[in-house]
Amino acid sequence: MKDLYELEKYYNHLNLRKFSMILSDYTQCYKYYWLESLIKISVSQKIEITFDEIINKMICEVWLVVTRFHLKLGVNIRGTNKSLLEEIVPVLSAKTRENQIESDSMIEYLIKEHESSILPIKRKLIQYVPFRTLSPFLKISGNNPIWSKKKDTIELIKKINEEDPLPYTIGAFEGLNTKVYINPEWGNFFRDQYFLLVGWIQFHKCVYIQS
């Protein structure tokens, strides 16, 4: 995105070209919602976040897309074009009599009350999404076996981060309790350019949905 490239002179320690490549592949929707959720959480100056917090925010972000606009977000899974993220919404909405749930607080309450119903899907989401979102920085192909080796992937992320600051690193794998550490400089960038970044992500989400 041109606007991001133009910002490089102000954030010369950050690799904005690689960052812009995160959303260049339109094969899955997860990275759009992961990155958007991470940025929105980081605006509160929070630099340590769990996988669970980000996944819960992703559910909030996708809620209206599924319940009000009835848009499909995934590639073919078991004969349908639903994404795993999309499958969570009807499970939760079936647990309430409320006709319209729009606020994040209401959605977060549903998640908390019915966590056991969606836990298997949440666990599937964290197997690859947090790691593959950083793939432009890691320089490894999509079919590289390292993706299935959490410890090796986390160590690679840490190693590359020492030379080329990544938007975030990942702590020891502990399932949904695994911690994400946002780089302070990237955190400042997310806050400074919040509206630009959210608009950029939403543009790519629209392109993905239309493709």
Radius of gyration: 17 Å
Uncertain segments are none
Q: What is the ordering of alpha helices and beta strands? A: HHHEHHHHHHHEEHH
Helical region count?
12
Strand order of the largest sheet: 1-3-2
Query: What helical percentage do the residues reach?
Result: 55-70%
Beta-strand percentage range: under 5%
DSSP E strands, number: 3
Terminal CA distance reads 19 Å
Structural class estimated from helices and strands = mainly alpha
How is this structure best described in words?
- The protein has about 210 residues and is mostly helical.
- Helices cover about 55% and strands about 5% of the residues.
- A hairpin with an 8-residue loop joins strand 2 (about 170) and strand 3.
List the defining traits of the structure above.
mainly alpha; 211 residues; three-stranded antiparallel β-sheet; 5% strand; 12 helices; globular
Provide a brief overview of the structure.
With 211 residues, the protein is mainly alpha-helical. Helix content is 56%, strand content 5%. It has a three-stranded antiparallel beta sheet with strand order 1-3-2.
